[in-house]
Amino acid sequence: MARLAIAKDFLAEYAKLDADARRAVEALVTEFARRPHAWRYLEKPRRGLDDRVRLFRVNSLWRGVVLAPDSGDTYCLVTILPHEKAFAYAAGHRFSVNQALGVLETRDEATIQQLRPALQSAARPDGRRLFGDITDEDLTRLGVDAQVLPVVRLLASEADLERLQVALPDAQYGALYALASGMTVDEAWAELARLAPGGRPPGRVDEHDLVSAMERSTDQITFVYEQEELPLILARPFAAWRTFLHPAQRDLAYRPSYAGPAQVTGGPGTGKTVTVLHRAAFLAARAATSPQAGRPVLVTTFSGNLAEALQAQLDLLIEDPAVRGRVEVLTVDRLAHGVVSNARGNPVIADEQALRTRWAQAADDAGLAFSPAFLVNEWEQIILARDLRTEQAYLGCPRTGRGRPLTRAQRGQVWRAAERVTAELAAARESTPLQLASEAASLLGQPRYRHILVDEAQDLHLAQWRLLRAAVAPAPDDLFIAADPHQRIYDSRVSLASLGISVRGRTRRLSLNYRTTEEILAWTVPLLGTEPVTGLDDEVDSLLGYRSPTRGQRPQLAMAVSRAGEFAAPAGRIRGWLNTGIEPPAIGVAARSAGLARQAREALQADGIITVPLRGRSEPQAVRVGTMHAMKGLEFQAVAVIGVEQGLVPAPAAVTPEDDDAITHAQDLQRERCVLFAACTRARDQLFVSGTGAPSPFLPREARHALGARDSRDVTLRA
Q1: What is the mean pLDDT of residues 521-537?
Q2: Cβ burial, residue 700 (10 Å; 0-12/13-18/19+)
């Protein structure tokens, strides 16, 4: 009986097809699954470079690419391409088994040979080559194919290696990149070994056994074990695509145990969230045999939108209802609300605008020379963050991270203003989310969970961390934390060590982006500026080595002279995306403010494009529209980011005046950069950025200069 495997790239390309083409693919593949002998009659291309590649006709425009190993009845759906590209793929690609890791690899042999003459002529004056000091034996040990070695020997610089990246398998490029960055062969091997299935390279590898290589390649290939699985996978290709794990992610997710809290960091798209989900599934499955089986596993984050997405992905990932029932998904705010509700009844959350009015009134009545924003920040970042209960505690507390110095008398004034506001909140029976977190932490008499997994951890406040620490007992595997300080979109700046949460020696960094194309990364990383960023472990976090193996279209930037003109541009782009077969829910639109997001929805609706808010459930087949903050942690095939202009990005109200507090001003600007960066990196394949009037100062200088050189007509510029 034939066995069917599906590659990640197949699902990615299948999701881009229009509805008619998807139906044709599903009918064909389902028919092949019913009649296994039909696979033997697939088309064998005349000029195929690899004799094991086959093609099947979808319709007049598309062909599917299938890998049919020499022995056995296993067939792998590799990708779907337009007719000419499918034949070119067969004529230029070769499949092989990585001799170091035992996984299936694909290399673009045609591109390698096309680059060879240019690499031969790129010799340095001194004749030195990039890997001149590395032996063939060592390169082979690191998994470099014997057929690739002659070209590798021609490389003279890192720029040459980068040119070759598009044609090489990820593992081979990663090994060469490690050597080029200064690692020794042993260090590169140690880095490479972590990518092996199960974290350990196989003892022996049969270079002819493609089926075993496929079985090891769990980050790229999944097997269909039951015929009923196939329509479920094809019905939700974009969601199914997300369940794949790269070996580095699998190593983290399925490690038998960590001695204490563990942390995974990395830029957008490196798989932190999917690693958290798989770790949760692993711990929940293991919990059935645990003495503490009664305590559930908690997956938590800061955002309701993200929590809903995590819930849906866990439903897809965990098939056993008993295991799924052991995993709770709650935001930290919902957890705090539940704990307090059980203790004293349902709390009322204070309105943010009304809260600022209270602070402004308290400052005016006391004659304080502080803005309401400064007072709120002082209350949240010092008083609530450090859980200060008395004036004496506040007077003697260091104000690390706050730029404006305060005299003892001024601190007393701030404390009395805080006492007044908190008393007014108490009288109104209202609380802020951070107050609830502090209260909940003190109310928990005993730990509630066996394990807690935290996604987007960089945006949690110290009060929320105290609650999480109280909700799980210190023990092996107590906390599993995923964070990226480059995506910090709130004011929280946390040192886990200050809470007794040590991740030293148990922090791993992911650097390969499996979501966003290299073109989108190259455009978005400069949005962050050059200021150093500190992580939750008090170490400077870097995006050095952050890269994507996927190539695609460059982002598009459009600036208009009117808001109506601006809205016309993303509307046209979205219609184009829909016409190419991108599912409406796989398209996201982000704006810095809720008001602008609402205007965009109205404009798109008037243009015939169905939209819903990010939380919308009434119309599943609709484009999602929301704020940049609400987009955080989500993922779309295509994203339009609107209103990226002076006066909106950075948002003036979100930036502390420099003469009020210079340090906080700089932190606010960096946070605004992170907000834009996070929104743009929600895109997997397509990114479109627009604005009205002058472009945001955060946009790349080259783009701003080119736009400034144009006249005042609506323009579109390839960034």
Answers
A1: 81
A2: middle
